[in-house]
Design brief:
331 residues, disordered N terminus, mainly alpha, single chain
């Protein structure tokens, strides 16, 4: 069942994987196979994360980590901490996510490539771009040395977003195309959807919104088909930015509300923050200053609570600065 879950998660989506992993977990518990139980709990946590159920993801990972520590299995701890880092990043527990990745990197035999890539992502959303670039570059070097395609794709994925935030669109496109190529070789819907969103962002930032919309639409269809609510929310937000750029505020608002509904149900704090900034910008364009101020205040509150640093290309109100919501907290 664990093998089937791993194979089907990449294309059929996390819900199918969760079915197989739940069956495997029941069997391991009956056989009192503690280590296998711990690994399966962590894998269940990751697939609940992919499906957008972050509360279940955190609960499963916490149970898996507890068993791993009770067994003193340091060979399993690094992988578990890496998964924790991923989920904690999306729930806005950025300080904890940074600690999880750093602690994982200190463990001998840990999956250093993905830990560097995911720590790079945490540093990116904290606004620490030099640190993010250093970690992601290290991840790519390790991935190329190991020849593991999925690790290389993950490293390219992090580098794509860093380059997008820094305005290096040519480099961002190169990294995103590498992710897309590897995702197709691996038949990995999660990586493919992320690459399509990034390529769409490059087109949008270059003013080619029709091409951007095509990529976002493909990403939404792929995310829905594979059960990835997180990428569905992210694609809809990017689509909304393109709509807003073209003056289609009603369409932009509709897309943001769908993304925000996903984020609210799942506890995706960073998506909630981005959606609030977009709703503020949309309301401002529509002349509703009261609603704009309320949405901007919610975004600022999330930034203050998490330390999140929104990407520079995200539309925000002219009166809202990216740093003022959390003075002194930027790394």
């Amino acid at each position: 069942h664990r093998s089937l879950a791993a194979a089907r998660q990449r294309r059929s989506g996390p819900l199918v994987a969760i079915e197989h992993l739940t069956a495997a977990l029941d069997r391991y518990r009956r056989e009192d196979a503690a280590a296998a139980t711990a690994v399966t709990l962590c894998n269940l946590g990751y697939n609940h994360f992919l499906s957008g159920d972050l509360r279940s993801a955190l609960a499963m990972l916490d149970r898996g980590l507890t068993v791993i520590r009770q067994l003193d299995r340091t060979d399993l701890l690094g992988t578990a901490l890496n998964l924790c880092c991923i989920v904690q990043t999306h729930t806005g527990e950025l300080g904890t996510a940074l600690h999880s990745a750093t602690a994982g990197l200190e463990i001998e035999g840990a999956p250093r490539t993905v830990l560097y890539a995911n720590r790079g992502e945490v540093r990116r959303v904290l606004g620490d771009y030099p640190g993010a670039l250093a970690d992601a570059s290290q991840a790519l070097a390790l991935a190329r040395r190991s020849g593991i395609r999925r690790s290389e794709a993950i490293a390219h994925d992090t580098l794509t977003r860093i380059r997008l935030d820094n305005g290096d669109l040519d480099l961002a496109r190169q990294h995103a195309e590498c992710v897309l190529h590897l995702a197709e070789l691996l038949d990995d819907a999660w990586l493919e959807a992320g690459a399509l969103i990034a390529i769409g962002d490059v087109y949008r930032l270059r003013g080619v919104t029709s091409r951007a919309g095509e990529r976002y639409a493909r990403a939404v269809r792929l995310a829905i088909g594979s059960g990835s609510r997180i990428h569905e929310a992210e694609a809809r937000l990017s689509f909304a930015v393109a709509d807003l750029t073209n003056g289609r505020t009603a369409s932009a608002r509709e897309r943001v509300h769908v993304a925000l509904d996903i984020a609210d149900r799942a506890g995706l704090r960073l998506v909630q923050c981005q959606a609030s900034h977009l709703l503020a910008a949309i309301s401002d364009c529509e002349g509703d200053s009261g609603a704009a101020a309320a949405h901007a205040a919610r975004a600022a509150e999330i930034q203050a609570e998490t330390g999140y640093h929104p990407p520079p290309h995200l539309p925000v109100l002219a009166s809202t600065t990216r740093e003022s919501a959390y003075p002194g907290r930027r790394p």
